[in-house]
Amino acid sequence: MVPGNNNVAAVKCKAKEREALLALKNDSVDLHGILSSWSSALNHSECCKWKEFISIGPLFYELESDLYWVSSISSSLRYLSMEQVDLSSASDWPILIANLPQLRELRLRSCSLPNVTSTSLSMSFTNFSDSLTIIDLYDNQQNSSVYQWLMSFHSSVTVLKLIDNYLDGPIPEAIANLSSLQELWLGDNKHVDGIPMALWDLCSLRVVHLNDNSLTGLIEEFVPTISNCAKDSLKVLDVSENSEIAGTLPNLSHLSSLQVLIFDGNQLESIRLPAIKLGPRFPSWLRSQQERCVWLDISSAGIEGIVPLWFWNFSLSLNYLNVSHNQLVGEIPDLPVEFKDYPQIDLSSNQFHGNNFSGTIPTSFGRLEQIQSLHLRNNKFIGELPLELSNCKELRILDVAHNNLKGPIPLWIGDKLG
User: Distances in Å between the alpha carbon of 186 and those of 25, 76, 147, 160?
Assistant: First the structure.
């Protein structure tokens, strides 16, 4: 089938789908004849036109919007998916869903669901399904009362998607009661305050999206708490576009499974991510950190390719820069003198070459009069050390090993580094 196709006549029913729906009908008690159009008769064989097709978008929706039809097939219903179906009058939807004993996946996206009320909570708590694993309530204007309903599925839910709702206040600590949770999607809401420490006690947690909220706090306060149970399972962490999250991003090397880290739209003073896989593409989210960041370590991060031009301008705000042990290529531009005082720069173990495509070490390094350490090991530089480096009055460490340099050791090295 092709849900969403504007030409109903063009949509063809597959035999496998028709057989599955007929099997569902046979297992159901249909006292009111709701599924009467589901038939193997020749004139009813086009199952995409059956009125009660239960995995539907706006095109196929011909069901009662109050969801009472669900009770007629409650004994066998395992997957319920609706998108852009107006369920604004289904005030008792939490009760009906909670009483589907076999339901495994619930997807009600953009359905204008009413908020969970105290009445529906008290009635739905009596007979909750323990088979529901996926709950997706994307774009339903739900407020934080939905959390009370969700907590009743504490032993079964593995994926929870509440993106683009009206969730406000702090993220409840009780979310840690969802003991089987693997994916948590809370982006585009109005949550405030910090990230609950109890969240990192979930040992199966793999994906966390908390982007586009109003979360606050110092990142160095909540990241170390990921050393709890989730440190071995967490693969994706997204806290982007929370403008009040600030501070120093500490070393995350203890997160052994981390693959994706997104911090766009926050303002960090220090980013220390050695040996964290950020590549292969150069992490574009760093561009948003230029205003405050003074320390950047993205060494051994699996980053490949040419460094974007904006990054060299970003570097001007730093007093420590380490991009070593990646697979970066291309030309190092003329570096301006606007670096912070006493910078330390490590560009070693990449495939950089010099300015003007000559392959020599850029003479512009000599403008960094306050630089303390410069590491250019394991690149493709040729020629001699530029005399301009003698202008670096504070230089204490110079590492240019494993390049293709030639010529005598300059006398000024004995004066500067002796």
Answer: 36, 30, 12, 8
Residues 6+ apart with CB under 8 A from 373: 344, 345, 346, 395, 396, 397, 398, 399
**Phi/psi at 224 (nearest 5 deg)?**
-60, -25
The DSSP bridge pattern shows strands 295-297 and 260-262 to be unpaired
3-state SS, residue 193: strand
Which 3 state secondary structure label does DSSP give 121?
helix
All domains in the chain, ordered by first residue:
1-53 (no CATH), 314-418 (3.80.10.10)
- Among the ranges 51-55, 69-73, 137-141, 219-223, which has the highest mean pLDDT value? 137-141
Whether 325 contacts 348, CB under 8 Å: yes
State the greatest distance between any 2 C-alpha atoms of the chain, in Å, as a whole number. 98
Tell me the pLDDT tens digit for each residue of 267-323.
788 888 888 778 899 988 888 787 778 889 999 989 999 999 888 877 767 888 999
